[in-house]
Amino acid sequence: MNPKLLNAFKDYTMxxxxxxxxxxGLEYFHIPHNIAAGGVSGLAIIINSFLPQVPVGxxxxxxxxxxxxxxxxxxxxxxxxxxxYASFGMSLFMWVVERFYPPVILTEDLFINAAVGTIIxxxxxxxxxxxxxxxGGTDILAKILSKYFHFDIGKSLLLVDFFIGLGGVLTxxxxxxxxxxxxxxxxGALIDRFIDGxxxxxxxxxxxxxEGEIIDFIIHELDRSCTVLNGYGGYTSEDxxxxxxxxxxxxxxxxxxxxxxxxPRAFISVNEVHEVLGxxxxxxxx
Length: 286
Description:
- InterPro entries: DUF2179, N-reg_PII/ATP_PRibTrfase_C, UPF0750_membrane, YitT.
- By secondary structure, the protein is α+β, with helices and mostly antiparallel strands.
- 65% of the residues lie in helices and 10% in strands.
- The chain has helices at 3-30, 39-50, 56-75, 77-100, 110-130, 138-149, 153-172, 174-199, 211-220, 249-262, and strands at residues 201-207, 227-232, 239-247, 267-273.
- α2 (39-50) packs antiparallel against α3 (56-75) and α6 packs antiparallel against α7 (153-172).
- The longest helix is centred in the N-terminal third of the chain and has 28 residues, at 3-30.
- It starts with a helix and ends in a 13-residue tail after the last strand.
């Protein structure tokens, strides 16, 4: 299969999983309990309280259409196309749920509904964001802030959604409104944490007398590469070679175990890297 088509299939598959999670979190946890936790979905919940005959999914779709022009003009056609798919897909899935699987009250506990719904929605939105799309609405505004002002996506969402949360306080009362505000705060932190988790890698600096075997293992067993730096031992006064490599967690564990076997006296420095772009990792053009 063409690599571009394969990547596109992967992206849209993960986006689809993400929007399904967001829709389930809304329909079964937030909407039944009037938790307007920001975003167009939160605004739609507020509007639905005044127009109960109009489904929340339809309101979300209508509100998103107003913002799509902004997305196409400021974020480019690729992002706009994926966002269009995500928004229509989420609205369609919400309609299917409302039409054929009417949400039931799983629990009356407002805290459990707020917490579980926020976790499910946070995971779903992280997937959508991580593969270059948005669920539409205020997510678009958050992406614009992230692109042009270099804000974290989670913090951008927090700023935009805070005012919607205040609307929830005025509409549904102090208890539901405050839970909504708490959901907004934690949702932003969860999104940033989950996105970091998707792109996390290990940055390694290795000093070993078995550098040749380690390089061979990295290249032939892990199908990765490394950079060899010439160094000088301050204590030993000997010339040394320092291996620099960036690996995914699973590859790092395999390499660490290999080094333990061949050179227990090796020196390894490990740092957490939150994003890696370039050959062998995420395409820097995306």
